[in-house]
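In practice, a research group might receive sequence data for several interacting partners and want a quick structural hypothesis before committing to experiments. The following worked case mirrors that situation: the sequences arrive first, and a predicted assembly follows.
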Amino acid sequence: MADQAPLAERLESVRGAIADAVREAGRPDDDITTVVVTKFHPASLVRELAGLGVRDFGENRHQDAAPKAAELAELHLDWHFVGQLQSNKARAVLDYATALHSLDRVSLVDALAAVGSPLDVFLQLNLTDDPHRGGVNAGELGALVDRVLAVPSLRLRGLMAVAPLGAEPRAAFAAVRSASERLRRSAPDASSLSMGMSGDFREAILEGATHLRIGTAITGKRPDAG
Ligand SMILES: *Cc1c(COP(=O)(O)O)cnc(C)c1O
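A structural hypothesis for the assembly, expressed as tokens:
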């Protein structure tokens, strides 16, 4: 069992590294939301982080996220869903999530539209050639954008991506940034970029990330299930 001190220290050290990268990029320092990804960790860890001032939490599986959100409901946290989402879970996830970072297909847009609750969405770009990875290819993005813009309950925030294993993260994030410039021609308000994890958030910040999704650098190693 880790006590609270190492958690607070890791959080401080990541906050410091984010501030350094923001300075290096010459960006304003209120421009970035850090989503702490707590998947596989218990609700007690989320509660500790909330006590240290964290408001935004990321989860990637509905069956893990729902009980944590319910147990911590009185803290009024912002839950960001960052994993692959089955359309038949859309209604249940809308009960607690404020944002979905992994919207990747028209059928899921339709499921969210049918429920009609407000939700911030990021369209996930697949930067690999592997169709089993989450996300749409750049070529399919336009059709998905048009469908999302037609749904009043969905607020299109921008794009999300994971840098492919083995790729140079800065180049991967630069590709997301150019896709974002194209996206803004049809959706001028969709300027957010959800990119950057424990190992590559500096590169993401240098390429314009507005939402970092950071797990292990803050939480420590994930329990076995992860
Ligand atoms: C787990 C996860 C993260 C956080 O990864 P770390 O390397 O632990 O920082 C970020 N984004 C997504 C989509 C994830 O599934």
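Before designing any experiment, note the following. Residues 120 and 150 are 14 Å apart (CA to CA). The chain has a mean pLDDT of 95.
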